[in-house]
Amino acid sequence: MAKSVLLGILVVAVAILTAESSRDANLTIVNDCNYPIWPMIIPNDGFSPISGNTFRLDSRDAIASFTIPPSAAWSGKVMARVGCAVDSSSSPSRCVSGEELPATVVQLQVHAYGRADMAVYGVSLSGGFNVPATVTPHAFQSGDACPALGCTVDLNPGCPAGRRVTAADLAGGDVVVACRSDTEAGGYFKQRCPKTLTWSGDSVDVEERCVAPGELKVIFCPKTMVTAAADVPDDETELISRTVDVDDT
């Protein structure tokens, strides 16, 4: 599978082409954190991987693109690993957070419910939290709601005692790197992040879907909740300055 890493953002291109719709949809992953992340893209059962998950994404400093066959549906999760060690094969390991729960999980379905033009998406904190994340559809058919979902709030500093996951910082103290999940409705997570799924059986007050989006954009550590835009080009692609081919199988 051909891949490239470009300075700026991480883009995962997922081609969608059936008799119903011939429009491509791109999945773009942006790191707005002030530290590097190692994105982990995990297919759900029955779907093919689209990444070897070995690349590092510096803050607004890299793009990698992945393509799957045009006729294929895809469903999976995106997580942000933080504070990873890198071995001689460039594979991240022993990450401070994001390798397993508790972690923020972005959930995505392309070709959902058997429809070639349907995307379903959301941000789940039901397994815990490690970094803020939002997902927003762009360039969709005018008239569809296509809400932005997720949360811009860093939940780690205020994480209730007993649910904190800590790691030693450079000064020798402990810093909260993740927060274990709520077990009830209306808890710490839901009060601060109402447009996320925070416990089993939770829901948000808008539909978590969009018809024929040209792009699904996942932003880690977003500064603001970006509003979805119908058929508006994304200016952030202008940040691309050079291409470096990598092998990320």
TrEMBL record:
Top-level division of the source organism's lineage: Eukaryota
Gene3D superfamilies linked to this entry: Thaumatin
Keywords assigned: Disulfide bond, Signal
InterPro entries: Osmotin/thaumatin-like_sf, Thaumatin
Cystine residue pairs: C33-C221, C146-C210, C151-C193
Pfam families: Thaumatin (PF00314)
Signal sequence interval, chain numbering: 1-21
Name listed for the protein in its UniProt record: Thaumatin-like protein
